[in-house]
Design brief:
This protein is an alpha/beta fold. The protein has two domains: about 1-75 and about 190-270, Rossmann fold; about 80-185, Rossmann fold, CATH 3.40.50.1000. It has nine helices and 13 strands. It has helices spanning about 1-5, 25-40, 55-60, 75-85, 135-145, 170-180, 190-205, 220-230, 250-260, and strands at about 10-15, 40-45, 70-75, 90-95, 110, 120, 150, 160, 165, 185, 215-220, 235-240, 265-270. Strands 3-2-1-11-12-13 form a six-stranded parallel β-sheet. Strands 5-4-6-7-10 form a five-stranded parallel β-sheet, sandwiched between helices. Strands 8-9 form a two-stranded antiparallel ribbon. β2, α3 (about 55-60) and β3 form a beta-alpha-beta unit. The longest helix has 15 residues, at about 190-205.
């Protein structure tokens, strides 16, 4: 990444799969981000974590990801809160683990049972260690019968946690949409995430950067790569994350076939300075 630091002063870097796997942080990746910042570069972490940035910053610190490696964190949860605000004064059913409830902190909505809810906030599976989307067929059928909107706080379908893949909210939302359900999505690959990142970069730099100065770094084809392609910025694809086990060049060919507009300038086994 060393030669890309001057060419792209602004790095929009994915989190899960690039700088940690939910269990362990990756020292080489953190070193690369820190060195880019020392080289007067800007690092904005973009994560589909369905929680406010303050909660994610605490989680990162617990994994050994310290502030020298980044300037700012933008989460899917930050964008989700604006979608939840459309239901001000209403009742929401929360589909997901209790650890994500900080997402609703301070918002004027009440939690309710599925029978009483006016919309559903999906942040993941109740128990992603043991469950799959198949376990939610009855939930989704009941939601579809009442034509409830699902606000999906994390478009990721799967992430790697240690040595295994676990399902995320995006897999539930995909199943609901296939049943004809209404889904409002936050996070990558959707434009609001990147528009917020561009706005924050302009604030931190004092002027808006050109897209030619921005580099996306990520491992998720349907999220990181698709989002950066739609936003029109160059990409470094990391093969170590959700696509682990694929040779970098084979992965690059497969992803480019899936997303022909993706400007993948480099594919790396892991994020490393030189």
């Amino acid at each position: 990444m060393q030669d890309l630091s001057e060419r792209y002063p602004v790095w929009l870097c994915d989190v899960w799969g690039v700088i940690h796997d939910g269990v362990t942080s990756f020292g080489k990746a953190l070193d690369a981000l820190t060195r880019h910042r020392r080289n007067r570069g800007l690092v904005i972490l973009l994560t589909n974590a369905p929680r406010p940035r303050e909660d994610v910053i605490r989680q990162l610190a617990g994994l050994g990801v310290a502030s020298p490696a980044y300037d700012l964190v933008i989460t899917s949860g930050d964008v989700t809160r604006s979608l939840v605000n459309r239901h001000t004064g209403g009742k929401l059913y929360h589909l997901g683990p209790e650890r994500d409830l900080g997402l609703l902190r301070g918002l004027p909505v009440d939690l309710a049972s599925l029978d009483d809810a006016q919309a559903v906030l999906c942040t993941g599976l109740f128990d992603d260690t043991n469950e799959t989307p198949e376990d939610y067929v009855q939930h989704l059928a009941a939601m579809r019968e009442r034509d409830l909107e699902m606000i999906c706080a994390n478009p990721d379908r799967q992430v790697r946690r240690g040595d295994r893949l676990v399902f995320c909210a995006g897999a539930i939302a995909e199943r609901y949409a296939a049943m004809g359900g209404r889904v409002a999505m936050a996070g990558k690959p959707f434009p609001p995430m990147y528009e917020l990142a561009l706005s924050e970069a302009a604030r931190l730099l004092g002027n808006p950067p050109a897209k030619a100065q921005i580099l996306a770094i990520g491992d998720g084809p349907e999220t990181d790569i698709a989002g950066a392609a739609a936003f029109g910025i160059d990409i470094v694809l990391i093969a170590h994350g959700v696509s682990r086990g694929h040779a970098p060049q084979d992965l690059a060919h497969a992803v480019n076939a899936q997303f022909p507009d993706a400007r993948i300038i480099r594919t790396l086994p892991e994020l490393i300075w030189s």
